[in-house]
Specification:
homodimer; 0% strand; mainly alpha; 69% helix
């Protein structure tokens, strides 16, 4: 079993992680904002309105859970973000090779 | 005390009530749709997005509670709709004078 939660992070790795984390979050939020702008412009009736409400409820819940900045969660968070396309592995360069290979491996099996 | 809940409604009054009820609902929903179209076009960031979500949650809750079509609730519902401007008293013409005066009285004290 991979020792994901026991991995140590250096100060430099923390900085790389924070930058990557913030970048992915900004991208995902930006895409969501544009999606909502678009969806909302097409709302014509109450059913559309509540569909937007349901969509926002779901996205808010997902985002709140996904962007977990605790050190013990970062490997999993990054693999999910890479998997979903919000981040690419090259943007995590500078992390220890063991971390990068764990992230890459998780990305493939998730 | 006014005997609001024991008031009888004729078939004709039911038709008038239903038409007025539907008209007020359509107006309020139409205004809400236009408000959301407008608000959503001005969303630029995550705070704006969650503010829209909170707004929709609140409006959905309010609308679900307000449009209570049970006979026992109609006098109160109409007085609220008149008070808020979604309906005017003239649109309830044809209801028994006792109902109209109850609605008008409630509108003043609410």
């Amino acid at each position: 079993m991979m020792q994901v939660s026991e991995t140590q992070w250096s100060t430099q790795e923390h900085e790389i992680a924070k930058a990557a984390f913030d970048k992915a979050y900004a991208r995902e939020v930006d895409t969501l904002v544009r999606t909502v702008n678009q969806q909302a412009s097409e709302i014509n009736n109450i059913a559309d309105l509540w569909r937007l409400h349901d969509f926002l409820s779901a996205r808010r819940h997902t985002l709140d859970g996904k962007y977990d900045a605790r050190e013990s969660a970062l490997i999993f968070v990054f693999s999910e973000l890479v998997k979903e396309g919000w981040l690419n592995l090259a943007e995590l360069e500078g992390l220890a090779p063991a971390k990068l290979s764990k992230i890459a491996a998780l990305t493939r099996i998730m």
